[in-house]
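WARN retry 2 of 3 for item q-0093 after timeout on previous attempt; input resubmitted unchanged.
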Amino acid sequence: MRRPNFLDLPSDLPAGGLIVNDIGSGLQPQRPAVGAASGVSSAMLWLSVAHPPRDILHARAVAAEHLAFCPDNIWQGRYNGIDEYATTLVGLNVWAFWWD
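OK item q-0093 returned
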């Protein structure tokens, strides 16, 4: 049985001014880690993560990808920079992204 993936969502589904197809291409480097979309709203995307980072080195690499994809998560969030954000990704099974 094929595991569901967030790219299985309809490609014309609006999400924060983007469409899911755009979001999918932005997260391609992380595709092996992502299980499926947990939810999409007009300004947020939640992803179920099948294989979250297990150590800080991997988490830092993932955090850099998140920064490129959705800088609001880090710069407008509650984190004091990318390193602090990366520490929250270790073992985290749900990733949330949001846009203004």
